[in-house]
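Lecture notes, unit on protein representations.

Consider one protein chain, 517 amino acids long.
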Amino acid sequence: MSEGKEPTLAKEAKRAVDPLIGKVLAGRFKLLELIARGGMGKIYKAEQQPLGRLVALKVLDITDEGDGEFRKRFFLEASLCSRLSHPNTVRVFDYGCSEDGVYFFAMEYLEGATLHRLIHTEAPLAPERAVRLMRQICGALAEAHDRGIIHRDLKPANVFVTNHGEGIENEFIKVVDFGLVKELGLDSELSKTGHVLGSPMYMSPEQVNNDNVDQRTDVYAVGMILYALLTGKTAFKRGNMLAVLMAQLHKQPPSFAEVNPSVQVPEALEWIALTALEKDREKRFASMHELLKALKAVDKELRGEVRTVSLRLEEGLVVLPEGLEVSEEIRLSDMTTKRLARPDSDLPSSPTLVTPTLTGRITSSPTAAMGLFTFLGVVAGVLLVSVILGGAYTLFYANETPEQVQELPKVPPKVEMVTVSVRSDPPAAEVDREGVYLGVTPLKLRIPEGEVWMVEVKAPNYISRTVRLTTDQEDINITLDAVVKPTVVKPVVKQPGEPEEPPKEWVNEELRDPWEQ
């Protein structure tokens, strides 16, 4: 066989049909097509039988042989992530282990593109569009945080943009990869000579230092994404991995004007991005709910409902200008019932990621820099059980591993859905529910029978309204009042050099002196 033919044969071998295509996994998932490949698994387009539903099926190249704890952790983590029900979070339908010992997840099948692609092709985005997308991302994260789940690896590649209709106003976000345990290996976005845990461009300083993380770690990543959406640039220059990590620790992000002078955004919106990127987490937003509150305030400015918005933080909480109100997010802790929730008595209240422990912090000294490379070289050889794919979905390790979390989730009782048509005057008004973007009018909403939805309807230059929707209404028309702008009377300005006309003497004829000749 000649050497010249080997590359061709190698390419043909790579195109060989996947042996799993056409097979039925766990008796209910027929694998139709390989759509992506990750470090320790593959993503297939599959059909869930007998429902006929298309799903994205993650098949792990992992077995629990030699690791008795893996099965416990797998089902614990899967059960936690399957409980996330926010509309902007990718849904986990099913999970388990087949009779052949193959672990899998069945997830929502999405069509669209990642936010990473959107940034590279269209950024900088208009402030209105960026805020609309970021509110959806923050809503998904807020629900996860309320359940004690921290994403830890939020980046544009883990945010999917799909559409619920035509036009950018109907862009709909899906956050994926919740609770990732990433493989300690190469990062495709960085230098091929380095190894890293996580994604350096979106890692918080506490992650770089291997400190304990909390929800403010995700706040930092949100700041990075918002920065990129509004400027079309990353906060720090891409280069070798060490330079990026050192910048995360010691360098302040430049202003928008420095990286892209053509960008014009409200001052409060730039303040939100830079506040989320504070090195000291105590100076960031205390929670995703607070960040959402700030975004909603700026949204009112962008819609013309208020003049320039000025925001500030007090102990991590957003202080709004006097008289400005925004709708509050409904938190899980405030809800009396939790739909689809199972008993939590055997689950930890706040799952945490198990990672290798660093012996010291990273500083700007050359010695520390070499120590970082040594650490990265060591952890690159450590293989964590992971579910990895740029845009796939996985779980993170908890520090408790209960014995009885091995059952698949129970199927909830079927709920009848009622379609309610929402129209508005003016048309094309945005409809939100509990901070979640639903679409623009005219809009058809499917509401569980008997439920009451409070929705906010808003349009530029109109006063937003909160409306009560019930399943007894088949069609509702909502009228918004226009914002009344004060009339400004311009003073008459004399031209320079124009002589003043002397006042005329006024004489009342009726009061003239009768003796005057």
